[in-house]
């Protein structure tokens, strides 16, 4: 390394950051980019460093993941020792980095201190002056707590993003994307007030002006320093800037000129309902000053806050963020717009799109093929297509690298990649136009100003060329003119449940494909997304085509009845998984706020060929701060599960068990499933006069209580039926009902046992009563003859005595609990499937008790609280967690290895800045030793195994002579006793593989 660079690097190493360490979270130098390209360093690092040059960065810290994901740029580093910059230069840098949305934090490295900045916070404007402030200063001359707060190890394992510092900074709602959407929302509302009811025209003009603003800000030629956009504007309107043009009502002239220059139809203004209408003349009659004030940085009504932005660095994907703002919204009961689009489509956050694109179109030197024909069948804003297009261009640049330089494609290459490979369909005109707009913007972002403003006819007409099609996707298929040569289908189709009549029309149109091409049209509950999934295979190449679609996980994964072979959900899954090779499912069910709409989702990856794999990888994504703030996905070893293909097609609860811990939970459920079900027992008792069923339903008042079974009678107030039994009772005054059970008289009559459809906070609420009592459909009633009361009482006692087992069972098997409703809810089928132990007693083992307790005490809470659940918020405590964990781990080992008075025991606990390292020795039991360490974990690993290179991962098992070491982050979720059981299984597997 050049000695002149050493000083700022040395300062950085005070925080234990590694420099250019292979396959390890490290700092890479921008000046060494040519060397990295020549050495075939990770393409992700090369592309990120090339991007960092735009922000005048000196070095970049990359987080490496142990789950196979590519390295991720997380910190920009500025050398302010050799390469001093002025305050004005750093203000400009901050605006650019904030606008660029590339990383959440940057650091300025001085001689004796390091300043830390939140790059998700905009510049401050105080008294009309732009300022920027650091959030912390690290004094390198003293060893203090501030130094520890930014220790490299915290970034290496992701622990930094869970600290108090991160709780108050690096927030998504202060990022450029959210600010731009908020500004647009206000501008759109005000502009519509000025322009009247011409909503489509007002939206179109807003989009046009944003595009023009983007082109204007990116119009400066780096060689001549002249703004070529301004030159073009002046030549055609007599004014230099967009705001001047708007203030002088010259937007029509500019749009005509831009349409002629760029081609592609993107600036062409026509009325689709009346093509002969002169839209340009109509625009000319508008008072464009009303629009100008929103784009004028000096205006008090500048709601966008343009001075905060550096528009030349705003990513194209951010424009897609505007998508939902232009879609009609569902109405609430009061007739006001909600945040949910009425067509069921939802905006896909860019960090999720990036994850899926990395999975489907990875960057590596072995495959730099940019000719990958792909389609999004419900393209919406075009965010998948834009991101895929940029990825194909990155592949071209890497594949054509030369002499340590990435290649820069000419416009003809960019146009060809776009024309040959990027396709999309959407039913909405606004979506199609926004997709075309975003793709052309992406093309512009990869060109120099001269190429944009000197060369005419820059854009292809993507609509006329058939790349982006405005059509109902199922009509598009039904016409049977579509290509069947796509390599990839990717996207996020609408999640709505289609009306039966509408679904029947689609089914009839597509019927010819059902037998001819073996397409399954038996769609559970008319779910539109599942119809997209099933029919998208028509587009894919046989044998090599791949599909990646986001599904609503409730109907896709979690619904189904294993005891009913004709169950629609199971039949659909079985057909899908048997016909195609499902490789993995990334499950976002626990992330209810991943999208703006509260919905459970999963991404499915399928190859268009017969099943090959014996198992399907199921990745359970748990909420973390990095996910909540839309930064990146934090995963660990325990989030990965393998589901045998035979289980995947037949057992709906296998997926749910993984949300609660994995195969250990599944094995326990299997054991419980062998017991007699409550429903079977109740059916057997019918001969003795027993009856059961759920109560009445108030709502759509289509039925009258003719027999007065409910009206005027006592009824249970649901909210008052709690763990300790039935509370308040009231007189039911309703006369009309949506449903009244046919056996109402029986189940409302005493003696009867009422069981509420919930697992309760501590127990399943149930109460045995001897009075006539009605109840709603959220309660199961079990009635018996008076002489059978003792038997009914025994049943209640049986259920109560196994309360925790039954609560666990519902949590692990219910498709309602935690999926579409609260984790504490259940449905009738869940209660009737409860195992009974009257004939064969059930005695859980110690390991099974551990699993049950962890599910009930920890995992259930996670469904409601996410990142704020105890397992994510709390650091493991030695006495409360580490010792019980160690006991469970050693007890499991000693069932196999203990002999001649020797056994595995907990011998040492090392606490580092971001980890616990537990040491287990085989020998005579002694008290454990506690040790605090400021050592870099890498040094610790080397001390244990000096002759072996060890690749760091978040969860590590290290083996020596008669010693096992477990090294994991401090967060409680890594130190549950049930995790100890999984660690034991992993240790056995290591032994079999002789690691």
UniProtKB/TrEMBL annotation:
The enzyme's E.C. designation: 2.1.1.72
> InterPro entries under this entry?
DNA_methylase_A-5, N4_N6_ade-DNA_methylase, SAM-dependent_MTases_sf
**Gene Ontology MF term list:** DNA binding; N-methyltransferase activity; site-specific DNA-methyltransferase (adenine-specific) activity
A matching Pfam family = N6_Mtase
The alphabetical list of record keywords is: Methyltransferase, Transferase
Q: Could you give a single Gene Ontology term from the biological process aspect? A: methylation
- Catalyzed reactions: a 2'-deoxyadenosine in DNA + S-adenosyl-L-methionine = an N(6)-methyl-2'-deoxyadenosine in DNA + S-adenosyl-L-homocysteine + H(+)
What sequence ranges are listed for the domain DNA methylase adenine-specific? 318-631
- Name of the protein: site-specific DNA-methyltransferase (adenine-specific)
Organism (species):
termite gut metagenome
């Amino acid at each position: 390394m050049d000695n002149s660079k050493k000083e700022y690097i040395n300062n950085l190493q005070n925080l234990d950051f590694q420099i250019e360490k292979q396959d390890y979270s490290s700092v890479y130098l921008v000046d060494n980019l040519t060397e990295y390209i020549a050495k075939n360093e990770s393409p992700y690092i090369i592309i990120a460093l090339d991007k960092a040059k735009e922000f005048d960065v000196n070095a970049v810290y990359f987080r490496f993941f142990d789950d196979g994901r590519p390295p991720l740029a997380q910190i920009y580093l500025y050398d302010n020792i050799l390469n001093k910059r002025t305050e004005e230069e750093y203000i400009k840098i901050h605006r650019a980095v904030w606008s660029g949305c590339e990383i959440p934090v940057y650091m300025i490295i001085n001689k004796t201190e390091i300043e830390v900045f939140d790059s998700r916070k905009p510049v401050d404007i105080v008294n009309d002056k732009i300022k920027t402030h650091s959030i912390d200063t690290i004094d390198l001359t003293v060893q203090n707590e501030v130094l520890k707060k930014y220790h490299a190890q915290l970034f290496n394992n992701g622990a930094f993003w869970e600290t108090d510092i991160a709780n108050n900074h690096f927030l998504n709602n202060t990022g450029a994307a959210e600010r731009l959407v908020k500004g647009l929302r206000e501008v759109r509302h005000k502009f519509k007030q000025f322009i009247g009811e011409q909503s489509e025209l007002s939206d179109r003009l807003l989009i046009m002006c944003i595009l023009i603003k983007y082109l204007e800000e990116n119009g400066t030629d780096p060689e001549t320093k002249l703004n070529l956009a301004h030159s073009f504007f002046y030549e055609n309107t007599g004014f230099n800037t967009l705001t001047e043009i708007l203030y002088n009502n010259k937007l029509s002239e500019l749009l005509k000129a831009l349409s002629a220059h760029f081609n592609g139809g993107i600036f062409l203004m026509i009325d689709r309902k009346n093509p002969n209408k002169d839209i340009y003349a109509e625009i000319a009659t508008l008072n464009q000053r009303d629009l100008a004030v929103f784009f004028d940085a000096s205006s008090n009504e500048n709601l966008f806050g343009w001075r905060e932005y550096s528009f030349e660095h705003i990513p194209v994907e951010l424009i897609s963020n505007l998508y939902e703002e232009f879609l009609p919204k569902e109405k609430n009961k009061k007739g006001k717009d909600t945040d949910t689009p009425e067509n069921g489509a939802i905006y896909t956050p860019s960090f999720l799109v990036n994850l899926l694109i990395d999975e489907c179109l990875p960057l590596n030197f072995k495959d730099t093929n940019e000719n990958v024909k792909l389609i999004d069948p419900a393209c919406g804003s075009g965010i998948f297509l834009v991101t895929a297009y940029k990825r194909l261009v990155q592949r071209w640049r890497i594949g054509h690298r030369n002499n340590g330089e990435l290649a820069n494609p000419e416009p003809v290459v960019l146009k060809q990649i776009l024309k040959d490979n990027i396709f999309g369909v959407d039913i909405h005109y606004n979506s199609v136009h926004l997709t075309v707009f975003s793709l052309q913007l992406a093309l512009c972002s990869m060109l120099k100003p001269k190429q944009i403003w000197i060369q005419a006819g820059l854009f292809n007409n993507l609509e006329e060329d058939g790349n982006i099609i405005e059509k109902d996707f199922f009509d598009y298929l039904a016409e049977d003119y579509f290509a069947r040569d796509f390599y990839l289908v990717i996207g996020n189709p609408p999640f709505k449940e289609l009306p039966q009549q509408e679904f029947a029309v689609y089914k009839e149109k597509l019927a010819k494909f059902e037998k001819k091409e073996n397409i399954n049209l038996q769609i559970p509950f008319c779910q539109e997304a599942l119809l997209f999934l099933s029919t998208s295979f028509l587009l894919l190449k046989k044998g090599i085509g791949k599909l990646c679609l986001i599904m609503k996980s409730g109907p896709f994964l979690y619904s189904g009845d294993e005891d009913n072979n004709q169950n629609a959900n199971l039949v659909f899954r079985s057909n899908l998984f048997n016909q195609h090779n499902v490789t993995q499912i990334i499950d976002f069910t626990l992330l209810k706020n991943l999208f703006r709409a509260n919905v459970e989702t999963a991404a499915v990856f399928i190859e268009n060929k017969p099943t090959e794999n014996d198992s399907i990888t199921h990745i359970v994504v748990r909420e973390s701060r990095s996910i909540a703030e839309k930064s990146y996905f934090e995963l660990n070893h325990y989030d990965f599960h393998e589901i045998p293909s035979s289980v995947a097609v037949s057992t709906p609860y296998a997926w749910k068990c993984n949300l609660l811990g994995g195969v250990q939970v599944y094995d326990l459920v299997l054991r419980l499933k062998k017991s007699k079900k409550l429903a079977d027992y109740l059916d057997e008792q019918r001969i003795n006069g027993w009856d059961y069923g759920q109560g009445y339903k108030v709502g759509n008042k289509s039925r009258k209580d003719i027999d007065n079974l409910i009206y005027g009678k006592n009824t249970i107030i649901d909210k008052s039926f709690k763990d300790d039994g039935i509370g308040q009772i009231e007189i039911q005054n309703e006369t009309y009902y949506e449903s009244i059970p046919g056996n109402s008289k029986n189940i409302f009559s005493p003696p009867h046992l009422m069981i509420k459809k919930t697992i309760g906070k501590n127990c399943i609420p149930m109460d045995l009563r001897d009075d006539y009592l009605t109840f709603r459909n959220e309660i199961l009633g079990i009635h018996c003859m008076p002489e059978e009361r003792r038997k009914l009482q025994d049943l209640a006692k049986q259920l109560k005595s196994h309360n925790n087992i039954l609560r666990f069972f519902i949590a692990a098997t219910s498709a309602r609990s935690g999926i579409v409703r609260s984790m504490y809810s259940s449905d009738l089928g869940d209660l009737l499937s409860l195992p009974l132990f009257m004939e064969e007693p059930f005695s859980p083992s110690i390991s099974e008790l551990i699993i049950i307790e962890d599910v009930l005490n920890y995992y259930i809470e996670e469904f409601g609280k996410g990142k704020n659940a105890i397992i994510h918020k709390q650091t493991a405590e030695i006495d409360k967690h580490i010792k019980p964990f160690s006991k469970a781990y050693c007890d499991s080992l000693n069932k196999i290895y203990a002999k001649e008075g020797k056994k595995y025991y907990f011998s040492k606990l090392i606490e580092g800045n971001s980890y616990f390292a537990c040491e287990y020795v085989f020998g005579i039991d002694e008290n454990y030793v506690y040790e605090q360490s400021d050592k870099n974990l890498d040094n610790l690993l080397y001390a244990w195994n000096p002759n072996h290179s060890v690749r760091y991962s978040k969860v590590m098992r290290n083996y020596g002579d008669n010693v096992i070491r477990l090294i994991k982050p401090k967060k409680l979720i890594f130190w549950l006793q049930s995790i100890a059981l999984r660690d034991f299984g992993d240790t056995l597997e290591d032994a079999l593989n002789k690691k």
